[in-house]
Specification:
By secondary structure, the chain is α/β, with parallel strands linked by helices. The chain is built from 14 helices and 13 strands.
């Protein structure tokens, strides 16, 4: 029986390599359609959680993991030799930037090398991790061919970029159209069948390079537009104009305009990282991607802008930031999730500490800071309990991310000085000088 027919008959077994915010939802998508999945991860805590029917991602219910485990459709392991048991392997590991804003493909390469000895004829290998155009062809294809396989004949190689948006109830992952590019036409045929087993809509493209580039375009588009509105926010503030009112007014135009809103910076694994993958690759062709780099510079400067607004708010109260107590509301990078990857709140906390402030955070979705690559100082720090006594003890409260769980009335009643980066308190009654926007 061919790989294609095994997929179409729901007899194919699938391995998901990397069980984070992308890998675990993907595994469950296949499970819901009757496919057996083995999750492979180097993190034994995630493996143990899945095998015990527990969830470590807030928006994924433990009950669903437990249900798939009981049905025998989902299991997890740290043993990558189990790659021999499956028909398809899908890589969902991080692709961060290094300290020089250059791609760090170590997670991808290490994952491929871990399963390489166990690959067998007829398997499918798909990369979902966001990367620069050419990665699949330049990094994965030679390694697979080095095992003696002929791509498109006895092995199938794909790139299909993840489009996971944690906590988005309007667009659960299986409803988001899935782009897939194959190394050959045969690869694309198998890849399209594979992803049709888990997604309502599959969008085939002509090559892995097109699929890789499309993912970068999506996030560069957002980064550039967020950078634009963040820059305009600074201009508007100097002019005494409310940028939020400006954007809302412009958004009434029914064509030719899409609203993007300013904030304290950008977060998540995609927008702060992905554009620089194309910037790096473009240099190989002698091209300087000025829009991308400018947007990155503006967005990365926003935490400093927020802290300077804090300084001004404290100064108006005859207080110095050095020695002041400052509470950051919202550590997650966006509202109502527990995902703190690349959150600008970390940069705000770092800058506050650098300027001598005593900084803490409150976030009901992030009770304790998990290990993070860039900010080891904050590892293990716990969210401050939300009480009147605690909040009133801070010289300033920064709204960095606004969760639905937050209480505006209590904040306005308990905090004397508030710096609002999200326009969360718009329309609320406040005391004169109590709220500053940033």
């Amino acid at each position: 029986m061919t790989t294609l027919s095994r997929i179409q008959n729901k007899e194919a077994r699938i391995a998901i390599l990397g069980l984070g915010y992308v890998g675990l939802p993907l595994a469950l998508n296949f499970n819901r359609n009757g496919y057996h999945v083995i999750g492979l991860d180097v993190d034994a805590r995630k493996v143990d959680a899945i095998n015990e029917g527990r969830s470590y991602i807030e928006h994924i219910p433990a009950a669903e993991i437990g249900e798939m485990k009981v049905k025998g459709l989902l299991q997890a392991s740290t043993d990558f030799s189990r790659a021999t048991e499956v028909d398809a392997l899908i890589i969902c590991v991080p692709t961060p930037l290094d300290n020089h804003h250059e791609p760090d493909l170590s997670y991808v390469i290490n994952t491929v090398e871990s399963v390489l000895p166990y690959l067998k004829a007829g398997q499918v290998l798909s990369l979902e991790s966001t990367t620069y155009p050419g990665t699949t062809a330049e990094e994965l294809q030679p390694r697979v061919e080095g095992r003696g396989f002929i791509i498109g004949k006895d092995f199938y190689l794909l790139f299909s970029p993840e489009r996971e948006d944690p906590g988005n109830k309007d667009f659960p992952s299986h409803k988001i159209p899935k782009i897939v590019g194959g190394t050959t036409a045969a690869c694309l045929e198998v890849g399209q069948a594979l992803y049709e087993a888990a997604f309502e809509t599959v969008v085939p493209v002509s090559s892995t390079q097109v699929a890789e580039f499309a993912k970068l375009l999506e996030n560069i588009y957002r980064s550039v537009n967020i950078g634009l509105v963040n820059e305009l926010k600074i201009v508007a503030d100097k002019m005494g104009i409310d940028i939020w009112e400006v954007v809302n007014a412009a958004a009434t135009k029914p064509f030719g305009f899409k609203a993007f809103y300013p904030g304290p910076g950008i977060g998540g694994h995609c927008i702060p990282v992905d554009p620089f993958y194309l910037t790096w690759k473009a240099k190989e062709y002698g091209i300087h991607t000025r829009f991308i780099e400018l947007a990155g510079e503006i967005n990365e400067s926003m935490p400093l802008y927020v802290v300077r607004r804090v300084m001004m708010a404290l100064n108006a109260r005859r207080k110095a930031i050095n020695g002041s107590r400052v509470l950051v509301m919202g550590l997650a990078y966006k509202a109502d999730v527990d995902d703190e990857r690349e959150s600008p709140s970390f940069e705000i906390l770092e800058l506050l500490r650098e300027y001598g402030a005593e900084a803490d955070f409150h976030d009901p979705h992030v009770p304790v800071i998990r290990p993070v690559r860039k900010h080891p100082y904050w590892r293990g720090r716990k969210s401050v309990e939300w009480t009147q006594e605690n909040v009133a003890a801070y010289d300033c409260v920064i709204i960095s991310t606004w969760h639905k769980a937050f209480n505006k009335d209590e904040l306005l009643d308990w905090a004397d000085c508030i710096v609002d980066t999200r326009n969360a308190l718009a329309g609320c009654s406040s005391k004169a000088g109590q709220v500053a926007k940033a």
